[in-house]
Amino acid sequence: MLKFRSIQFKLFVTYSILITAIVAIAAISFYYYVSDILSKRDSESIFQSTTYISTQLDSLIQNIDNAAVKVIFSDDIKQLFFEEDNPVDPTISSYNVRKMNDYIFSIMGPIQLDWQINLFDMNGRFFGTGNNSVSKLYPGGKMNNITWVKDTLAADGAKVISPPHSDDWDSSGKTVISLARVFSWALGGKQQGILEIQQSYSVMANLIGKLMAEPNGGASVNKSIYIYNQAGKLIYPYSNQPNAYPEFYWKQLQRENMATGTSTINNPLNKQREIMAYTHSNYTDWIVVAVESENVLLQPVETFRNSMFIAVFGLLLVTLIVSFFVARGLTLPIKEMHKSIRALRVDTLLPSSQIESNTSLNELDILNTSFKRMCIRLQDSIEEVIQSRSQEMQARMVALQSQMNPHFLYNTITLISIMAEEKEDHDIVKVCKHLSKMLRYILSNHARNVTMSDEVAYAASYLTLMQIRYGEKLRFQIDVDPSMMEVAVPILIIQPIVENCMKYGIHVAPPWKIELTGRTDGEKWTIHIRDYGGGFTPEALQALSQPKLNLYAQESQGKGLGLKNIAERLQLLYGEEAIFEASNHPEGGAWIVIGGLIRQSDQDSKPSEEELAG
Length: 614
Hints:
Shape: elongated
Structural class: alpha+beta
């Protein structure tokens, strides 16, 4: 199995991520690049479609309007239609009907089969020719109730194009589009009648269908066409049923101010993104709108993208399998070398104990050879370092213990004690007794460690001497767990700290208090020493918070057994497990914590009765 931190795993993951990222970036970039191109081209295409449809519809309406103008300005037709101002028989005679048909045919040529030309006045007289020839009288007021008739009268001679509607003069319900103009007997005279030319709606629908047909002849299923007049009335596709789509697109046109152009919209009706192109005709005042779904447009690109992803996934799988075995071939010799390194001991550093490399990779052979040579050099270096460090540590321990070795003081103190006993000065006798114990402890010259009980007793003797000197001004308390009294510790690690408390902790109003507390916690022991003085200065705390001391750094001699000396000796004995912390107690005063692993003392480390007796 692959380990997460192994070279094989990292090579495998790196190649996987790299290949996947390259493929993903390429596919996504290609998709968006092609999509953008297709969207722009499709926008141009459907815009051209709307322009073309608008042009064709303008041409269709213009032909109708040209015919209307010719009829309106024909004096012969006006003379026949307005032959009598108030005729007894308002219908046109059959003779006049034939003559009007002749005039219309002579002006326009043969009338198109899908046109219907109607002339009528407000009195109800009506004449129609084209698909149906009609001459009749409608009831009074009918003309005034038709909406597009009112619009035509209001236009005062301008053309009026009505939206699709049922033929108002035919009961068959045929859907038509009308173009109407008013005309009179004389130019500029009173409006006396209306000319209407009807175009079958199916003609316009068929025309749009042909314009939107696909190259194969089928109807376009991707694009939708909508045509509106200026008032928002739907011209195409005509339906009597309400439809939400035309209303939605009309609102979009109003947001775009119905200007000619293209836009991309989000359609909430079908939840799709759509491309909408629109063209406004100044001639008909119609707006032609073409809409195409962007999803349908990009479907081939998405299909190609998905196919490419599938193909690349297969290629990626093959590549990853190959990279797996390549990485395995590279890391197998390294794993063997790793096993050899883990099996290294001081007594197994010789090259004969190493596994021979059987790889065909020259770089790994070089690495294995270098490793063997390193083992030889390491063997020699370890022997030299062990010898030199052993001698150096022994010399430092002896030097640390020998810094206070004035042996002549012991004899002098003994003489003073005898003289004090003769004078019956008991305080001096007590001082000499404790001082003598302290000197014997120091002069015992232990090569190794002492017990915690000896260190505590030595510190107690020192505090007793200080109490004799200062009397009731000094108070001290010693509370050490009896279970740690036999723990082996370096000599002189407690008394120097207590002495430091006496040196700096008495610069406050008496009584001066010193507390010494010892406790065990599992495999470790700790001694807490606290005074109630002014505490450490920031500079002193910063100096004591520096990184652990370099055991082999060259330092000048004669600095005394200070806090730095104690920290160094604890580190010599306990290494990384040594405890030395200096801080200011929250309630005031300096606070020092020392400690280390619990190690029972041996007989060689404990001073003999003869040594203590002097």
